Give the backbone structure.
Amino acid sequence: MGAWPAFRGIAVSGSNGTGPGAARRGRNGATAGSIKLGPLEHWIGFNLRMAQEATFDAFSHRSQEIGESPGRFATLTLIARNPGISQTELSYAAGRDKSSLTPVVEDLVRRGLVARKRMDHDRRTYSLSLTPDGKKTLTMLTRCARRHERSLDRLIGMRDRKRFLQLLKKIAAEID
């Protein structure tokens, strides 16, 4: 089958050990030669992970021009679209554990991109909203995200985009 992109610093190719992936350099500059994937080549989970890594890396490269990471884009977008959202609601919407999201929110607050305010009805809960600087940062990240989405659209094709999104959402909602 076809070649695989660099993954965790290793370039791999399809199960036949041929193709351009065999000579591709990984993140650390080393070439992996020929790594046989065996059944992984045809497993959806593995391919989904490879695609996620590749798209994350591509978006990371685009967002470097602003000095933000891709993970901040989803967090800022969810807060912008849901002013006053609690950190618990945000963690649920982002599909992240609250304990892993807390440092992200603290960083955004410290940098002046997000305002955190205690809720009147529950002093243990904070409501979140974007600051003017947060809105500016989100605008720049959105431009990067749109360029990134156009690249994905070229790969997937506009005809297949809707079905592809449906399948991804089905996996996220229904996997055991």
